[in-house]
TrEMBL record:
Pfam families: ABC_tran. Signal peptide: none annotated. This is ABC transporter ATP-binding protein. SMART domains: AAA. Transmembrane segments: none annotated. It comes from the Bacteria. PROSITE patterns: ABC_TRANSPORTER_2. It comes from Falsigemmobacter intermedius.
Length: 253
């Protein structure tokens, strides 16, 4: 089966430093992969290479078998690559409702669906309201995004991601900086997305309880190199992972 997303020998060099070193990894729909590794391992840089924020020195990013390495971040997003942080403060002076509505509208416009003709303002509003309900943002619908507390802004990011209906969902520490009250909402949304057999989910995460609750698979990066890849139990118990963390627990890193 063609992977939904694949990196092949993906490498980036900053001066003399190789931040991501020939990383080859394939992802499939219906699977949530946690990407772990000590600070500076290259996790965010790998994400940046996949979403197009930075260009690779060599290697490829492939989406459903197609090499997308030369596409801009927005072209990659239109092709189905959804990354939560890209959407932060997209329209900070507009309300939560308007942000979601505009994102739904832009997705519908970009699509060449026959149903497009049937799209109406009513459909847009219905879908926007569904997303508000799903992300528990109904009470904040009329608030300007820039006035929201951090936790609610993170929820808006997930809401905009849902509005784009991507094939690939990329989350980089989605609960970072969130309170104990706020984090479960985001985690249950990700758990929801994971249930969709068509969704491929990548999650950079340090927190072990989150990884245990959500991950089907763990990929470990260390010094820019992929050092382990497999089901959570065996990967977490492996010597290579223990060595990478030098005896520290992942959640402590
Ligand atoms: N634009 C850049 N220029 C130079 N070096 C960079 C750049 N971006 C990242 N690096 C370096 O690449 C390495 C990997 O960084 P990266 O942020 O990807 O690690 P990480 O695994 O996401 O770490 P953390 O868990 O702390 O977020 C680090 O040594 C970092 O200093």
């Amino acid at each position: 089966m063609t992977p939904s997303l694949e990196t092949r020998d993906l490498t980036v060099r900053f001066g003399g430093h190789i931040a991501v070193n020939a990383v080859s990894c394939a992802f499939h729909p219906g699977q949530l992969t946690a990407i772990v590794g000590p600070n500076g391992a290259g996790k965010t840089t790998w994400f940046n290479l996949i979403s197009g924020q930075i260009r690779a020195t060599s290697g490829q990013v492939r989406l459903e078998g197609r090499d997308i390495s030369s596409l801009s971040p927005s072209a990659r997003a239109h092709a189905g690559l959804g990354r939560a942080f890209q959407l932060t403060n997209l329209f900070p002076a507009l309300s939560v409702f308007e942000n979601i509505r505009l994102t739904v509208q832009s997705r519908r416009k970009a699509g060449l669906s026959l149903f497009r003709m049937a799209d109406s303002r009513k459909d847009l509003i219905r879908e926007t309201e569904e997303i508000l309900t799903r992300t528990r943002l109904t009470a904040q619908a009329r608030a300007e995004v820039r006035t929201l507390p951090h936790g609610d802004q993170r929820k808006v990011e997930v809401a905009l991601l849902l509005a784009l209906r991507p094939k690939i969902f990329m989350f980089d520490e989605p609960t970072a900086g969130m309170s104990m009250d706020e984090a479960p909402v985001i985690l249950s949304l990700i758990a929801d997305i994971r249930k969709d057999p068509a969704a491929t989910v990548l999650l950079v995460e340090h927190k072990m309880d989150v990884i245990r609750a959500l991950a089907d698979r763990i990929v470990v990066l260390h010094n820019g190199t992929l050092v382990a890849d497999g089901p959570p139990g065996p990967v977490m118990a492996s010597d290579v992972v223990r060595e990478a963390y030098m005896g520290r627990e992942i959640e402590d890193v």
